[in-house]
Structure formats: C-alpha cells, structure tokens
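FORM 7B: Structural annotation worksheet

SECTION A. Query
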Amino acid sequence: MSDSMALPRESRLERYIWLLAFAIAALSLLMGFWYHYNAYLAGGHPFIQGDWLINSINGPVRRGPLGSVIIHIGDWTGLGPLTVTVILQLSLMIIMTLPVLLAFWRLRIPAYALLLTSPGFFIVFWASSPTGSLRKEMIGLASICVLLLIPLLPKAFRGLVVAFSLLLFAIACIGHEVNTFMAPVLAALFVITLRPDLRSRVLWAAAAVFFALTAAALLYAMSQAQISDRAAVCDPLLERGLGKNICSGSIRWLTYDSAHARAELIRRLTAPGAALSFAVAATLVVAPLVYLVSLHDRARLLYGVLAACLLPVLPLFFVAHDWGRWLCIYITLFTVVIFALALQGRIRMVRPVNPVVLLTFVCLSFVWSPHHILGLQLGGIVKRILT
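SECTION B. Predicted structure
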C-alpha cells in the first residue's frame, strides 16, 4: 500500500471485522444465486426476468430491443429466452461484484466494511430484498463497477476495460431508461480512474457524443412509453413455452401511463407509516456513511460526493414507487466512487474508526434492509436464511 493510502494502525478486532465483511458479501451472493436459481426453476419471475424479456418483435416498445436480442439468442442456442436471461443476470452479478471485492481487498481498510456490508449496497440489499434484485439497472451499475479495474490492473488493460464499460453502458441504456441517469457518474469515474487531460478537445468531443447518445436513448424510451395491448410483447414468450405469469409484472406495467404510475406512488406513499418507515430506512443506510466520511482528510469533498451521487437517481423518486431500488442505486454509486478515489490515493483516512461502532453497523446488516418498494424490512439476511 502506498504512503498516500497509509492508515492509523488497526486493531485485531478491526481485521476480524474486515474478514467478516467478506463473509457477509460471500453469504449474500450465495443467497442471491440460490433464490434466483429457484425462481428460474419456477418458470421465472414476472418482474425480475419479465422486465428483461420485454421485446419489440411485434413492434417498437421501450426496453424492447434488448429483450428481442435475448429471445433471438435463446432461439439460436436452443436454450430459450428464460435461460439466456438468467445466465446474463448472474454473469452481470459476477461482473459487478468482482471489481468491488478486489478493490476492498487491495485497500485493506476495515472501516470500508461500512460500505461493503451496507444494507443499501447491492450485494446485501439484493440478498435481503431479492424481489428488487437483478433488474436492468444492474447493467449500468456493472459498467460503472468495471472501471474499478483500471487502477487494479496493468496499464495495458486500460483500453479493454474502458471499451467493455462503454459497451455495457450502451446495452444498459438500450435495455432500460433508468440507466441513462447514471451517465454523469460513469463520466466522473472515467476521470477519477483514468486521469485524462481535461484540456483535450478530443475528450470533450467524445463526452458530447456520449451524452448525446445517452439523451437519445432516453428520448426513445419516452416516445415508446406505453403500449395498448401487452399481447404484442407477451405472445413471443408464450410461443416459446413460458407461462402466462411472466407477463403479469413488468410487461403488464407497459400498458399503464405515467398518471397511473404517479397515482400508485401516491397511494403507497400515503399508506399509514410508509413514508416514516422509508425515512427510517434511508437514515439507517446513510448514517454509517456520514460517519465514515468524517474519518477522511477531505471530508467536505466526500460530503459533496455523497450528495452528488443522489442527484442522478433523484428524479426516479418522483415517477416510480420502487424507492428501495433507487436507494440501492444511490448507495452503490457512492460506494464505487469512494473506492475509486481511495484506490487512486485522492482520499485517505486520518482518524481511526471506533471498532465497536464498526462492528455494530456490520452486524446490523444481517438483520434489516430497506424494502425494495417503500419501507423497512426487519429480519434481513437472517430472515432469508431461516425461511
């Protein structure tokens, strides 16, 4: 570890907590794989896989091109669209997780267990609230996580990493409009990890093209926001042997307009205790991160990063009720930015973490999580294991 990343001497308890964080991450991943394997055996989930299988085979529809490709790959390989979808989802889960775990291992900072085991971070959140997991925002998040490999791999691999990240992000924007909101964070990670010459005209021209294409993907999704009959999307799936249940989730929602989505959001938000329980969940998620930021030398910068990472997902809170998912995106973006800054030596801890506080927060990640829609779920990973 370089001098710029040197930390106050850690205690034995902190080292154990660091290992515990790895154990929690590994357990969470195993639980995620097990849940989705069983969902696959049951014929697929109408939201978790159903959203991926929205297709434009019978006509243009938002999110449709990616589903069409998945269906054609299923036909070509003989695997079928559901199998291809699950393979793609679990592969992306590995692609997301590997750079994060490698960064955590390289940094060797026990306090960063507050990030890795946060109930709002995708690894733990997806295990605790699996119905909100493996949605298509994972493609955009994967493209961002991949950039953590740049400071971890030899310089010869940088071009491949950047190309792979941009390819993933292009697929992400075609697959789901929510990914377009992550473009500023991807651009920021590019600057942090690659340290390009910001005076380069070529760089700014490339950035203009990047944001223009991202905006075009969003405008296309908005122009095809609703369909009148879900049969156009559902029939290609039924013809390939999938059950009708696969059409009862995300595909059904394609027939609703934005007014229906807002009405559903208001209905859920005004339910007794819903807003308060989400506020409690969000506070419990963010409080450990505020504490972690306070331990760094550039705390003001990091408070700004904590606020800035919320901006890309903030519009989502006004148009859709999956607030737990939006919170997960926010925490995941912040975590990756912190890891990138630490790997590049741009931030360092100057105050020791309180081991008792650290252990308390890490252990609490076992027993609660935000609900993937609205609210607070008690039980967390422990409840999933027992049930």
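SECTION C. Observations
Confidence is low (pLDDT under 50) at residues 1-8. The beta strands are 368-370, 376-378.

SECTION D. Sign-off
Analyst initials: ____
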